[in-house]
Predict the structure of Methionine aminotransferase.
Amino acid sequence: IKRKHSGSDLTIFSEMSALALKYNAVNLSQGFPDYDIDDRLKKLLCEGTEKNFNQYAPMAGLPILVENLSEFNLKRKISVSKENITVSPGASYAIYTALAAILGPGDEVIVLEPCYDSYVPSIEVNGGIPVYVKLKDNFEIDFDALKQAISLKTKAIIVNSPHNPSGKVWRKEDWDQLANLISNTDIILISDEVYDLLTYGERRFYSAFQHPVLKEKCFSIFSFGKMFHITGWKVGYVLASEELSRAYRRVHQYLSFSVNAPAQYAIAKYLEIFDAEENSKFMQQKRDFFIESFKELPFTFTEKAEAGYFQIMSYGNISEKPEKEFAVWLTEQAKVATIPISAFYHEPSDSGKIRFCFAKREETILKAVEHLKEFL
Ligand code: PMP
Ligand code: GLN
């Protein structure tokens, strides 16, 4: 069968998690929590099925979830009506579906590298051509390079704030600059905002769908996987203008059609009691615990992650191996699995950096430190 995309046959996340399992290594690679989820969420999932939310939900989302999402977003000054919200089976699906809804053969889509590994395959499977622009060394946006990359064939730009793998959060001025670049074009913005609720620094989350200009031109994509630490539930949602939502649903109704109904019920009810501030404090403590525990090790970093699940670290003091080789070696020998940053680039790249997931129990982090101390 002819290949439809230039991505790997097995994602780096599956590969490193499998390697961790094989070598009995502490898995700080793929981004998923190993701590328990809120008991109330578990109960609500049971309640969903007991209350008979067991058949197809409406295509755009369970009404109670759509309603609670507009209230939740209004509280953080993102104004949405039900025409703007479509519930999706996760964020990767939503990115794929948004691309499927808008791309024609040969359309160009700009991605900012390093970027999440699903973007490029999703562009290519839908007949688009990825155009690559590198973020600066500090993961800020290079607007000159972005401007240069825009052509008459540019159909969309995919952006990601808070950013995976760096945790960088865009400022309002970044969004303004992007709006200036595309305001007089038909370019559509696909804005991956899955780490919206997990910010730790001064830069607060700002959504593309909050921006007066970008609001009309974007798909803002969210995931409850990261919001509520339930990556296995695979539920998220998309905010878009009425026109873009219609285009999205035109495709969505023939892909998954609708999304797991008891999970939608549970998430809707959980939104009513959820404390976003406490949630981000909980994760910030995890980040700080990770950084504190790694202090005695020879890894270095330039900036603490401002958001998300991950901390990038340099290993120049330890080895000159290329990133992938180093990550495999560390898994096999030191029994700690991580993700090489090169996996977020389409061309071979190597800056001696790996990504650690800190969404883990303290004992897991301490075990990783113990292994590393023994070995390094
Ligand atoms: N985008 C980014 C930046 C991610 O890190 C992830 C993984 N959580 C996704 C999208 C995919 O999210 P989901 O599991 O909801 O498909
Ligand atoms: N988002 C997760 C990460 O960056 C991975 C999800 C996946 O395995 N595709 O680690």
User: Anything to note?
Assistant: The mean pLDDT is 98. The first helix runs from residue 12 to 22. The chain has two domains: 12-30+276-375, 39-273.
